[in-house]
């Protein structure tokens, strides 16, 4: 089922999420709905707070992005990484290197806007899978960027916080339209 995505200005997007427990009601259905919702919106990641569940859960599918890249751009991926389709429960990023890079980011909760964000090139992350089995992994390049973006959502942060003051100022008119429910999106948005 396709869920409405919480629009910029929704309080849940600024709330720190709590750990997901195995007995969370209908978590399997929530996860299935999140995949449907993300693909319907042509997204590459979605965090549970974006569908009004302030829990430590997000999904990422960087495979379509990887498949659409040129051979030169594919060098932005870690050795052997051809994109991932992964569910992250109760994640904790455990390592950020000193190497950073900037690239454009957008957000399904802030449709129609993109901004250049500087993020670490690589991360190590500890998390649980859909069976609550603990995992540790290292991701680089675009996949690491997508994971960091979704991880920020669990901390009540938006990519806007990584932008320069001038970049944010240039977005004010469009952000105001979203805040006031006057932005026409191609997917269901929920304004609060």
UniProtKB/TrEMBL annotation:
Catalytic activity: N-terminal N-formyl-L-methionyl-[peptide] + H2O = N-terminal L-methionyl-[peptide] + formate
InterPro entries in the record: Peptide_deformylase, Peptide_deformylase_sf
GO molecular function: metal ion binding; peptide deformylase activity
Cofactor binding annotation: Binds 1 Fe(2+) ion.
Enzyme class name: hydrolase
Annotated Gene3D superfamilies: Peptide deformylase
Residues that, per the record, bind Fe cation: 107, 149, 153
Keyword Transferase: no
Keywords, comma-separated and alphabetical: Hydrolase, Iron, Metal-binding, Protein biosynthesis
Pfam families named in the record: Pep_deformylase
Task of the protein: Removes the formyl group from the N-terminal Met of newly synthesized proteins. Requires at least a dipeptide for an efficient rate of reaction. N-terminal L-methionine is a prerequisite for activity but the enzyme has broad specificity at other positions.
Protein family per UniProt: Belongs to the polypeptide deformylase family.
Protein name, UniProt field: Peptide deformylase
Naturally occurring in which organism (per UniProt): Mucilaginibacter aquatilis
Protein's gene: def
């Amino acid at each position: 089922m396709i869920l409405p995505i919480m629009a910029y200005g929704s309080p849940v997007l600024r709330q720190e999420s709590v750990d997901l427990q195995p007995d969370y009601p209908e978590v399997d259905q929530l996860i299935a709905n999140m995949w449907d919702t993300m693909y319907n919106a042509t997204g590459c990641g979605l965090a549970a707070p974006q569908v009004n569940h302030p829990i430590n859960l997000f999904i990422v599918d960087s495979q379509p992005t990887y498949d659409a890249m040129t051979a030169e751009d594919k060098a932005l991926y870690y050795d052997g990484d051809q994109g991932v389709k992964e569910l992250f429960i109760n994640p904790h990023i455990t390592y950020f290197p000193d190497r950073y890079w900037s690239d454009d980011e957008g957000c399904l909760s802030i449709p129609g806007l993109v901004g250049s964000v500087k993020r670490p090139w690589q991360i190590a992350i500890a998390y649980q899978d859909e069976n609550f089995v603990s995992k540790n992994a290292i991701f680089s390049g675009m996949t690491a960027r997508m994971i960091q973006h979704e991880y920020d959502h669990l901390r009540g942060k938006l990519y806007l916080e990584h932008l320069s003051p001038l970049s944010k100022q240039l977005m004010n008119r469009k952000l105001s339209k979203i805040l006031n429910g006057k932005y026409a999106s191609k997917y269901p948005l929920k304004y609060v």
